[in-house]
Amino acid sequence: MDLLLMGYPRRSYVEGILLGRTTAKVIGMSPCDVLMIPENAEIGFSRILVGLDGSPHSMAAGQRALELALSYGGEVHGLTVLDVPVERSLRYGVLDEARHKNFTALQILARQGEKLGVPVITELREGSPDKHLVQYSQEHNMDLIVLGSYGRTGFNRLLLGSVVERVAALSSLPTLVVKRSYGNQEAAVN
């Protein structure tokens, strides 16, 4: 299979997080991409939001978003959200290093979009990734959110939840979770 589709009813945030564990397990164990579709949501590809953090998983999500936009005549919005804990941000250069790494990921996405002829809009924000992804999707009337997955299923991840789970719980948009690399993407940022 290339894609697993999962529909789910709209729930409160707390219900979504608590009941989303099955979804998290399916995503973690799935060998292919997972498209989560909330109740009453429409699937569109005109305005695609992709969350980038510079990891190979997020860069694969960026590539997939570009391919979808190219196929359906859409545009891609790349959003990076810096979530640096206060105790780390006080160290000299940590915040600047994080900005540089993530800005580079946005530049790679923009260059790939330019090569393909896909319009790409990029933005860098600071704060909680899940909240900013959902907020941006609402502010800019996105059709789809695309995120990369590390596929973790360990105890620590289950306690903390994942950005994917929290976005799915907060957003009324379909969310595509990319599980593998696509096409001939440029090297991911270290």
TrEMBL record:
Family: Belongs to the universal stress protein A family.
A Pfam family: Usp
Cross-referenced SUPFAM superfamilies: Adenine nucleotide alpha hydrolases-like (SSF52402)
Protein name per its UniProtKB record: Nucleotide-binding universal stress UspA family protein
Gene3D superfamilies hit by this protein: HUPs
Limits of the UspA domain: 2-38, 45-179
